[in-house]
Amino acid sequence: MDTKSGSTPVAGLPWSWRLGAVAGIPIYIHGTFLILVAFVLAGDWLRDRNLAAAFAGLLFVLAIFGTVVLHELGHALMARRYGIKTRDITLLPIGGVARLERMPDVPRQELWVALAGPAVNLAIAAVTYVVLVVSAAATPESLLLIPRDTVGRFLEINVWLAVFNMIPAFPMDGGRALRALLAERLDYVRATRIAASVGQGLALVFGVVGLFVNPFLIFIALFVWMGASSEAASTATRSVLSGVPLSSAMITDFRVLRASDPLSHAVNLVLTGSQRDFPVVESDRVAGVLTRDALTTALANSGLATPVAEVMERTFETAEANEMLERVIPRLEACRCQVLPVLQAGRLVGILTPENVAEFVIFSGVLRRRPAAA
Asked: Residue 374: inside a domain, yes or no?
C-alpha cells in the first residue's frame, strides 16, 4: 500500500489503464498485468490443450485479483473514515497498490488502516467457507476439511493473502501495523527505523531459506528489503519537512512567462538560466504552467512563433506560502506539471519543484547533524 490536494485529477501509475471506479476511487490495471494473463492462458493451454480449461484458469486468476481490489478497498475505505482520500488503486501482477493522499497522523489510525486489508481477505475466506459447508451439506466433523476444488483453492488463497500481508515487514501491511504499535510509545522516525530493521532481518532469512528451499523466496526477500529501505528513507525525509512552512523552501528567484509570449522567449529563458518549468501569467494571475517537456513537444510540432497560451497546461495545482511543506509535497508529486506556483493573497510569490525540495532536504539534514558532530 503506497501513500502518495487540489483539484487536479490524478492518473494511475505509468503504463496503466482505467477500468472504472468503486466508491468514487478510480481502479487501474497496469500493462504488465496483461503479461500475467497471457502467461496463465499459455500455461493452461500447453498443459491440457483445452481452450475451455485455459479460460477457466484465467477466470480463477481474475477472481483472485478481484479479491486484491477488495483488499485495497478495505485500506481505502478505512482511511476515508479518518478523512484521508485515496487517489487510485492499481492492479499489478504482484498484487495491488492503493495510493493514499497521506498516511494517518495518529498511530492507532494507521494500525486500523493497515489491518483493514487482511481483514477483508479473512472475511472473504469465511464467507467462502460457509458457502462450501452449506453447498456440501457438511457435518460438524468435516468443518475443518477444505475441498481441493476451485472454490477450496479460492478460500486457501485468501487465507494465504491475509497471512502473507501480515508479515511484519515493509511494504506489507504487517510492517505498517508493527510501526504503528511501536509509534504508540516511540518517536515515529525511530519506530519506522526499528520496523524497517525487523523487515530487513526477515528478508535475510527469506533469502537464505530461498537458496535451499524455494527460489521464489529470494524474490520476496529483495522485495521486502527494498520496501524497508524505501520506507525508512521516506519517513526520515518527512521528519525533515515536518513543521516547515512552504515559504522557507520555495524558489523566490524565478522567471514567468506571459500567455502571449512566443515559445522563442521560453527557449531563451531555458538556455540562459537553470529554470525548466515556468508559471504563465495572464492579467496578473496564474493562468497556466509551461513545462520543458511541453515546450520540447510544441517546438517539434509548431515552431518558435507559437504563443505560450496554446501550449501551456491549464490544469495545475497551486499552494499557499503559509502551508506546511509536508502537506504540499503529495500535491507536487501528483501534479503532471512538476512545478507548483506558490501564492500569497492571490499573488505569485514563488514556485516549488521536486529538485529544490530534494536540495532543501539534503541541506537540512547536514545542518541537523552538524551540532551533534561538533
From this structure: no
Q: What are phi and psi of 60, to 5 degrees?
A: -65, -45
Distance CA 207, CA 76 (A): 32
Q: Is residue 372 part of a domain?
A: no
Q: Are residues 53 and 73 in the same domain?
A: yes
**Residues spanned by the domain of 61:** 2-166
CB-based contact 184:107 (threshold 8 Å)? yes
Q: CB of 280 within 8 A of CB of 257? A: yes
Beta-carbon count within 10 A of 114 CB? 27
**Nearest by Cα to 74 from 129, 131, 116:** 116
- The answer as to whether 373 is a domain residue is no
What is the model's pTM? Answer: 0.65
Per-residue pLDDT tens over the stretch 192-219: 888 888 888 888 888 888 888 877 778 7
Are 161 and 213 contained in the same domain?
Answer: no
Same domain, 38 and 147: yes
Comparing CA positions, the residue from 175, 170, 177 lying closest to residue 228 is 170
Distance of CA 70 to the CA centre of its chain: 17
Query: What's the rounded Cα separation, in Å, for the pair 102 and 1?
Result: 11
Write down the residue that cell numbers 492579467 correspond to: 283
**What distance in Å separates the CA atoms of residue 39 and residue 78, rounded to the nearest whole number?**
34
Same domain, yes or no: 177 and 44:
no
Dihedral sign from CA coordinates of 313, 275, 328, 245:
negative
Q: Decide: helix, strand or coil at residue 155.
A: helix
Neighbouring residues of 7: CB distance < 8 A, sequence distance ≥ 6: 317
Q: Which of 178, 165, 162, 1 is nearest to 77 (CA)?
A: 1
93 in helix, strand or coil? Answer: coil
Same domain, 317 and 348: yes
300 within 8 A of 339, measured Cβ to Cβ: no
Residues 206 and 337 in one domain: no
330: enclosing H helix or E strand: helix 325-334
CATH of the domain at 271: 3.10.580.10
**pLDDT interval class at 4 (50, 70, 90):** very low
Q: What is the dihedral of CA 41, 47, 49, 54, to 10 degrees?
A: -30
